[in-house]
Amino acid sequence: MSNFEIVEWYTDGRQCKVYTIHVLTKQDNEASLFFGKYGSTLSPLHNQALQLLQFIVKSICNKHGAIDDFFDRHENLVNALPPLPKKQPIEIAILGSAFPLRLYCIRVNEQIVILFNGGEKTSNTAQDSKDLSLKFYEAQSFAIKIQDALRSFIIELDGTKRNLRHYQIGNKMIL
Amino acid sequence: MKAPIVDELMGQISAEQIIFQDLYIDLVLRINQILAEKQIGRKELAELLGKKPSEISKWLNSEHNFTLKSIAKLTAAFDEPLIEISSRKISKKTNHLAPRLYKQKLNQTRNFAEPKTI
Question: Contact, A56 vs A47, CB < 8 A?
Fold first, then answer.
């Protein structure tokens, strides 16, 4: 797997900061690639992509933080957004059941989430969904490297527990 | 810091949609809070309102468009306020209305400020 850098993606939230990863051989980071593709006005899932983005920015980043209720869709080493359909919190009910998109991520703590990429779920499992399976396996690989880096303190939290940094280089986190 | 795509896409979500969703969420949370405080189940609420339980579930689980009438019914059934209209006055300095409209608004209790969230 290619080297990648953990980069900031949305840090204006009062409750939670979002990072994503930028594979060094690609032009853009994974979260922007996801929303660039599905958020395009030409995408048939344009509205759903906007709903998902609004959920991340408003409910996770600014209102509640990365609470357990929002990260209960476990897919091996990663989580998938949106959360499983349920009645509470109400922000999840509004998304509805049978939401077609999956955005993979890992939650470091309630103040930090790292987004990967994702796609449209068209089968019972991610592995069988044509659009999603490659992103599912990539997300697992990213998660393994990030979790190893966190465990060995190559990547660490700062004193506020709200920021990630490389133990030597600081803001530049290349794995 | 925001990735450019965040601003680009959030800008496509209409203010109306954001406000509607915020109001809806706050209203449902307030209703659920009252139900818990007064220990009223949804079935009992349905009976109070003369509706089927399934209708009440739809109200509280999906994007049901509450009418003022249904909000009034709930307020009466709970005997608890659900929404309040803000009494914030429009100051001369921040007024964006035409002077004629502004003069008509003086000494009125109504104004166009958004309702207070509960």
Answer: no
Closest-CA distance of chain A to residue B102, Å: 34
Nearest chain A Cα distance for residue B13, angstroms: 7
Question: Which 8-state DSSP code applies to residue B71?
Answer: H
Model confidence band, residue B91 (pLDDT cutoffs 50, 70, 90): low
Domain count, chain A: 1
Q: Do A93 and B61 touch (CB under 8 A)?
A: yes
pLDDT bracket for residue A119 (50, 70, 90) = very high
Distance from CA of B80 to the nearest CA of A (A): 21
Using the Cα atoms of residue A142, residue A24, residue A37 and residue A111 in order, give the sign of their dihedral: positive
Residue spans in chain B of domains classed CATH 1.10.260: 14-78
Predicted TM-score of the model (pTM): 0.73
- Contact check, Cβ <8 Å, B25/A50: no
Give the N- to C-terminal CA distance of chain B in Å, as an integer.
30
Is residue A93 less than 8 Å (CB to CB) from chain B? yes
State the pLDDT confidence band at B104, using cuts at 50, 70 and 90.
Answer: very low
Length of chain A, in residues: 175
From the options 1.10.10, 1.10.150, 3.90.940, 1.10.260, give the CATH code of B14-78.
Answer: 1.10.260
Please give the residue of chain B at the shortest CA–CA distance from A35: B5
* Structural domain of A126: 4-174
